[in-house]
Amino acid sequence: MVGPPLRAEGLARRFGGMTVLAGVDLALETGETVVLLGPNGAGKTTLLRILALLLAPTDGRLLLFGSDAARAPAALRRRIGYVGHEISCYPELSAAENLAFYARLFRVSEAPGRIARLLAWAGLDGTGRRPVRTYSRGMGQRLALARALLHEPDVLILDEPVSGLDPDAVERLQQQLLELRAAGHSTLLATHDVERAAPIASRLAILHRGRIAWAHDGRGADAAVIVAAYRAVVAGSA
Amino acid sequence: MRDALVILAKDLRIEWRTREGLSSVLVLGVLLVVVLTIAQDPSPETAPTLAPGVLWAAFVLTGMLGVQRAFVLERENDCLAGLLTAPLDPAAIYAGKLASNVVLLGVTQAVVVPLTGLFLHLDLVPRLPALLLVCLLGNVGFASLATLFGALAIRVRAREIMLPLLLLPLLVPLLIGAVQATRAVLVGGLAAASSGLGVLAAFDVIFAVAGWLLFAYVVRD
Amino acid sequence: MRRLLPPLTGLTMLAALAIVFLVVPTEADMGIVQRIFYFHVASAWVAFLGFFLVAGASAVYLWNGSPTADRLAYAAGEVGVLFCTLVLVTGPIWARPIWGVWWTWDPRLTMTVVLWAIYASYLMLRGFGGDDPALARYAAVLGIVGVLDIPLIVVSVRLLRGIHPAVINRTDGGTGLVDPWMRIGLLVSALALILLAAWFMDLRVRGARLEEEVAALRRELDARRGEVA
Fold first, then answer.
1. B33-36, long-range: CB within 8 Å, 24+ apart, which pairs?
2. Do C159 and B180 touch (CB under 8 A)?
3. Which of B212, B214, B219, B221 to mutate to test the interface with C (most CBs of C within 10 A)?
């Protein structure tokens, strides 16, 4: 039995006495790109980490492809690609070496070919043996994305992929995300960048104080509407 | 497990790349032996009796620094998150890191022990196989606790002092066993070291298993 | 039950003090100083109980995340260190007139110091480890590892100084507890200290829960204040 790639029901997370997520319902259908907006402290990173199986919720249920994530996390991890705030690549190794390492851990078949193709796609095939610590932030982000795609995951989860990038790099990443959507990937991404969110999103949601405060189904929501909704949510919350 | 070996290979490759880091740890080990020896101002007769204590104090101190370095490297760019998104058992991370710490400590000992023999007028050559065994058992025991607490201390405030604070009391049985076994090996032979080796072996088994089981609680949220 | 603890503790303490100072005969070899032995040994028992409780509560906490187990582990750690400190203080007071020295490195003393150090580091971790909410988990791991170390410490300290015998055979006062009242005195003292420890732990556990409630209320207040402003 296969369900939607991702369905979260009533996810809650407390840290000590502090409630960061207070009941989040979220679904991701195949081929969708869902964009999660929200101010700092809304709980976006915590939510994404739970969805990426890095963190267990204190309440609620998470179903990935119909399977309860709490039960068999290891097998499900293979189907998720995650890019967090940091690139998770070793600074002393080269891009190819980093990808080779992850390929082994994820048991990627035909790794050398796949790595070469991904490096080309990410525009990193000229880096050779240069260690990752010499990369610009844009290059690092592209490598992180390549790493997340290496094992051909069904779901891609990205936490603020464009933060800290210059406009060219943002353009480039935007393009890649559109390509991925066209290729049928299911993606969930969190961002601050309200204007850029509209063109790539199939659906949008705004997270505020640990809850989904606003959701917009379907495309065609223009940036103005989203910005207005965002401001409304942040300014007054009942 | 394969995953542990993959992690071990990656760690060793990074250590090789950052040779400056490794060599400074080696130099520190030698320096500690020198300083600890000078501080006790040994005569040629008393020098050999100091060796076991000096050696193991030096190994424990360099070992702790080495482990801290290893986990700092893992925290850069949050590589640990990358490992945790992989479909592997956190215990495999433990095993891989444990192995790499044992190797690094072994490399340190390979340099420090012969030099100590020189400084403290010890005839080490006939005793090398026995010393090797003592060092191996001691390394595994040390690394089994140090890997567990290294991962723990890295996320705690005041981590530089927290790691020694937590590790040193727990390591007392290891130190006692290792020093006793080393002393027995230098004076007599392997047979005389049996009680020390017994303590070391028990330490290794208990804490390797404990680390294996508890590592997930330290590393996974 | 809880309300009975303080008066019960008080009564048992009085009984213990009465027995130790009034009823029990003066020990032949060591004189009056030997009377400290009852609280010294009883403290040691309570300290050990405390450390095992830390490990047990820590294991429960790792298993099901129960905040009560966590508070209990912390309280047991504090009480354990308290009584271990008492052991390390009463010991030298007893030793000085009898052996002529404040301290030796014989197996039992060494073991006590190392145990004290392990659980003192547990308190350091808890107290100064910062605000990471995972700290309770880390402390639990330390609590369990500490108890696993105990048998290793017991065995290894016997290796110190090779086969050199302990300076004084201090099991049960060295010469054995000749008078039945001595045995009773020890048991009553132990009971008194256990009740005292239980009372302390109860206070600490309740205090911890109140601290958490206050912190939660404060956060709530700050959040509301932020909204209004």
1. B33/B58, B33/B112, B33/B115, B33/B116, B33/B119, B34/B119
2. yes
3. B214
